[in-house]
């Protein structure tokens, strides 16, 4: 109650606490199963969950605007193929490779935004169509066998550890979460995004350019997906087709576990981070229990249903 | 028109006792009891949100009650669905919004009761000839083949009424059957009620028009905040009794006493304003004046409000504010010019219901004070806290989601938003829809206070009491045009209704405008 | 016969009709093979699965909902056929249809009881169904009895079994939608759920019917596919989700619900098959086809949706 005004906006929401609690329970279960507790092991998992974390952050931005982006997986895959090809295994190409990759990512976001805002196509259909075009373009460009590779020097961003305790990718992930948290909850533009996400019509009536906010959010989300794709490339070190396809639904699941609502107006980066980790740990758990990989899809779907059912149930009371 | 014969001694057809209903913690009906005889007309009266619709929906099978008992023809009546209610002889004509847009008039009227062949297929030709017959017998001028979406509000209302009557019910429920009708058409509906009554049909109708209640009702039941405040038979109540029972206090205590202000200069004017939905509109508002705009439903109120706040701008015409020509091309432009607007549908157009009071209230205040693109959070908190006290907004704290507040408190949040800087013109569109009496009175006093400071106010409303109580002058709107002007000394419900039905009136509005330009 | 709202509804089919007629003329002109019996049989065998799945999607859209699980359900049906038709024979077909129905009911319950947005609920159903399918059949394989193939695709002639089956499916659904109370209720619910509620329409019933039908029709489409490829494939249905939505929108079905007609969807499905056929005749690379499909989909959305959104 007596929180200073500056902290009110950063106070974790109930949904965030719930996600963090779930994460804690999951970690305990994991520790019990594996029989030992180590911070390094947790960090190593977080390191690998970072691509999902970044992509889910982007998805959460779109959900904040009350839309859905079904092209984030394809966009991350595009980043993977483009980065590997433009790097061509040579560290000297880093600046150009990153620039080209980010450029393509922003292009996808802009295309999505224009389809949704200017041509008034429902977001999920527009992004479904762009994902199809991206997948086709990748096939045409690579002829089915993508080339190039990520030089070892660059792979430090996912393989390297800061002071030997924090993986660089976790640092990047945390920084992105914090920047977006500050942007949405502390800047005027972010406030306008929140208001137009929760009720676009009302925002427009109050003089907010809600349409522009939507385009902006799509560009930002594609940027985050591209960043996720870059981290993913750094982990695998090579290009492969369809590498990030499952990330689309995963990112929705992660955001929803973290408290995002389809009605818009909610943005909880800490919740999204917890959601991404939960999803990743659950998948590790499936692996530990040696369940077939197909079980992850069942898990994905069930998690979305349960998380949304719980949030609707809470709203009713 | 001949008045309806009272039917005091007819046997009881339906008896409601101790009826209660709540949604969550929100009690919407509390211990309501009344009865209705065969061939009687009962008027159900109350303000918006008083519980009338809930009561209708319980009787027609759309909702079930929590407690209490309904006896219909001496048997317990608890319909499980509208179809079940229909089987028991209860039919409802909803407000015009219940017409299904992609079905034709005939399909709407006979929905669920279509003639079918042996295979269960609908016999379209039979359906349409049935409709033609029905429309002729009711004297409705309706094209059975038109799609619902292409009908006017008045036509949709007739479709609803025809649908309910076609079920040949014992009890016919009419939910505000005349709200969108001109006085002419409203009279024919009252005549129709008289006919049905003569055939032994009992009728429950909701109305806000005192005239027709006094004329047609054998009994009245008045609800206020879900509880019954008056149940009386013809001759036992007066108009004043009804208003007192509806509002719970004397009208004088609700509306501020306003001095006349006839000589102030014109502050805002529109000349020849047109767009797709407004053929041509012109009027002027003085400094500190409250200009009421009256009209039947769907006569251009929404397009006018949208044009004034920049949502659906005028395509041509001149707009002047304080002597300066103005283009209201967007909401941002209107806001920048000093025009504040309160939308009729606050849930969709005014508020982000899931967000806290603070975020909903502070937009304009923080926009001015943002430093380097960052929010002035301490200032925001002070502003919101101050406004919350000033408007006595009842809430746990400023972080409570607006959606959890009552209608009145929600509306006060919408008002408070505009207080960051005092507007020059305030456009109010149904400002007290679904608002409790206490908040209503507070809103009226606030509007008065602003107008004392020189803010011009345009009050677009369907609530005649509100128009008469608050306006300095009233214009009547009909089919998107101003059809009459009534000075404060001549205010009367009847006069407003006459002009609102498009009957010729003096066009003083333009005269005054010309005098000042 | 065509009184009332039916007339305005039939008008929505005209663009798809014109498009498919145009494509027929174009392809017939470009390739002399087009009118050969074998090509026509080939076309109708491709029309049947896409037609069935589009028909199911259209029913969901009539009610103002959407179903993104149809592709996954198709894959599931192929897996069930591939795994059980050897041992169960004919009984594999009702088993697969039943599985489709269950999937649809699951989505309907999520939408109705848990009040989850249909789009997301069907996406979740799709993920679960995909998982189950991959548990059953991790990679393409299994076997479908050749007897089924003979029955369905055996004869090469214009009025082949697949074409007749497509026509029957579309006519039955068109009749149900336009001439029965159930069909009218679905349209009414799609065009304005609140007005429909006021008129006593139960949303649960509508959801169960449309998602159930969509699941069953998707399963039927999957059965046809599995018979055509004589095996199962856990991913074969994926691309059909978008095709189904494309066909419905191209056929004049409004995403907001309440408008459109099965007849239009038929011609739109035909047009999609013809477009694919043209690509093949022109020897266009499959990867380009994907891009083209995406662009056609966007074009269809732009052309058909914008006008409607404004009309609303």
TrEMBL record, chain A:
Annotated membrane topology: Multi-pass membrane protein
Q: What is its main location?
A: membrane
Locate the coiled-coil region(s) and give their ranges.
none
- Molecular function per GO: transmembrane transporter activity
Question: Where do transmembrane segments lie in this chain?
Answer: 15-37, 49-68, 94-116, 123-141, 161-188, 209-232, 252-282, 294-313
Where is the protein found, in the record's own terms? Cell membrane
State the UniProt keywords alphabetically.
Answer: Cell inner membrane, Cell membrane, Membrane, Transmembrane, Transmembrane helix, Transport
* Superkingdom of the source species: Bacteria
Instruction: Write down the InterPro entries for this protein, in alphabetical order.
Output: ABC_transp_permease
Gene Ontology CC terms: plasma membrane
Question: Its quaternary structure?
Answer: The complex is composed of two ATP-binding proteins (LsrA), two transmembrane proteins (LsrC and LsrD) and a solute-binding protein (LsrB).
Cited function:
Part of the ABC transporter complex LsrABCD involved in autoinducer 2 (AI-2) import. Probably responsible for the translocation of the substrate across the membrane.
Protein name, as recorded? Autoinducer 2 import system permease protein LsrD
TrEMBL record, chain B:
Q: Which CDD domains match?
A: ABC_Carb_Monos_I, ABC_Carb_Monos_II
Q: Which InterPro entries match?
A: AAA+_ATPase, ABC_carbohydrate_import_ATPase, ABC_transporter-like_ATP-bd, ABC_transporter-like_CS, P-loop_NTPase
Q: Where is the ABC transporter domain?
A: 14-250, 249-504
Question: In terms of domain of life, where is this protein from?
Answer: Bacteria
Q: Name one GO molecular function term.
A: ATP hydrolysis activity
Write out the entry's keywords from A to Z. Answer: ATP-binding, Membrane, Nucleotide-binding, Repeat, Sugar transport, Transport
Coiled coil location: none
Q: Does the keyword Membrane apply?
A: yes
Q: Its family?
A: Belongs to the ABC transporter superfamily.
Q: Which PANTHER family match?
A: CARBOHYDRATE TRANSPORT ATP-BINDING PROTEIN MG119-RELATED (PTHR43790), GALACTOFURANOSE TRANSPORTER ATP-BINDING PROTEIN YTFR (PTHR43790:SF9)
Stated name of the protein: Sugar ABC transporter ATP-binding protein
